[in-house]
């Protein structure tokens, strides 16, 4: 058996489809199918239920898939250790980010990183927190840039920025002329939030519920831009992260107000696997991003 056999096995487990698994591994379906059967013969155990039209793994197959994932992570760490012997800011780096961070942070920092670190190849991937955590665990990503949550506590975290959450209200709202708003004023008011799966939802809910606000159960947004448009249409008020807020106090039918007492915020971090040989690179990246945000304020 070899490394490719493990990759074929894990790909088949992820895609549950021989053709899709083969495409993901850039091989033909007969090649992947043949190698899986060869692996079964070599191990002396069935990995798949052959009687089913679906891709179903046996109990032994499921156990070996998990072990194969661990082996591939170890192999990646082994090769990463070799790569890390040179300049820490050269070579590929695969960064995952959440939808409420990426569109607003990446355009600010990626051009600067490319200019200041031309030998660093940056690959970017957007997904929700639970998906990114799984990909980091499996070695598919090198690090994550996201809001610190319980799911990321298993990783090493480097602080980047404590990002304030700003109150967004319709331009004809009674609060639109205010520069600040006490969070306690939200008591009894209905607030718009993102849908399940977004960590910002839980963070904003925590601050708003503590102030006595109520969630609008009729609508849950899939993105910050949808939230912003709903506010512009007069459907309610919401909290938006500062990076997503324009410099103007009022724009496109939305007024932005600093929230105080308490000042809601989320903690942006760079998370990476403990034991990663690229710790110096991640420390440099986190510091660079933090300084870039500080300079732009």
TrEMBL record:
> What's the domain of life for this entry?
Bacteria
For this UniProt entry, what's an example GO CC term?
protein-DNA complex
Q: Which InterPro entries match?
A: LysR_HTH_N, LysR_subst-bd, WH-like_DNA-bd_sf, WH_DNA-bd_sf
| MF (Gene Ontology) | DNA binding; DNA-binding transcription factor activity
The residue ranges of the HTH lysR-type domain are 1-58
Name by which UniProt lists this protein: Putative LysR family transcriptional regulator
PANTHER family (alphabetical): HYDROGEN PEROXIDE-INDUCIBLE GENES ACTIVATOR (PTHR30346:SF26), TRANSCRIPTIONAL DUAL REGULATOR HCAR-RELATED (PTHR30346)
Q: What Pfam families does this protein's entry cite?
A: HTH_1 (PF00126), LysR_substrate (PF03466)
Keywords for this protein: Activator, DNA-binding, Transcription, Transcription regulation
Q: Indicate the family of this protein.
A: Belongs to the LysR transcriptional regulatory family.
């Amino acid at each position: 058996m070899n490394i490719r056999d493990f990759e074929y096995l894990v790909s088949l487990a992820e895609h549950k489809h021989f053709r899709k698994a083969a495409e993901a591994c850039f091989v033909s379906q007969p090649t992947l199918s043949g190698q899986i059967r060869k692996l079964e013969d070599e191990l002396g155990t069935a990995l798949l239920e052959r009687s089913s039209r679906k891709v179903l793994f046996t109990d032994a197959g499921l156990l070996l898939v998990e072990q194969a994932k661990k082996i591939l992570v170890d192999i990646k760490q082994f090769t990463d250790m070799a790569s890390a012997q040179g300049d820490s800011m050269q070579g590929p780096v695969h960064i995952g980010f959440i939808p409420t961070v990426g569109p607003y942070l990446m355009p600010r920092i990626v051009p600067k990183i490319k200019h200041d670190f031309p030998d660093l190849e940056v690959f970017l991937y957007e997904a929700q927190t639970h998906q990114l955590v799984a990909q980091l665990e499996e070695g598919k990503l090198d690090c994550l840039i996201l809001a610190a949550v319980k799911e990321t506590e298993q990783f090493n975290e480097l602080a980047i920025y404590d990002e304030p959450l700003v109150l967004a209200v319709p331009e004809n709202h009674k609060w639109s002329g205010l520069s600040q708003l006490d969070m306690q004023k939200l008591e009894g008011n209905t607030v718009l939030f993102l849908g399940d799966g977004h960590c910002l939802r839980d963070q904003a809910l925590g601050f708003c519920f503590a102030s006595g606000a109520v969630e609008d159960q009729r609508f849950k947004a899939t993105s910050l831009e949808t939230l912003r448009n709903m506010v512009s249409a007069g459907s309610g008020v919401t909290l938006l992260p500062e990076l997503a807020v324009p410099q103007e106090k009022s724009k496109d039918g939305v007024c932005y107000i600093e929230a105080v007492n308490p000042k809601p915020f989320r903690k942006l971090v760079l998370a990476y696997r403990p034991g990663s040989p690229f710790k110096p690179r991640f420390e440099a990246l986190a510091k660079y991003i933090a300084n870039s945000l500080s300079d732009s304020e």
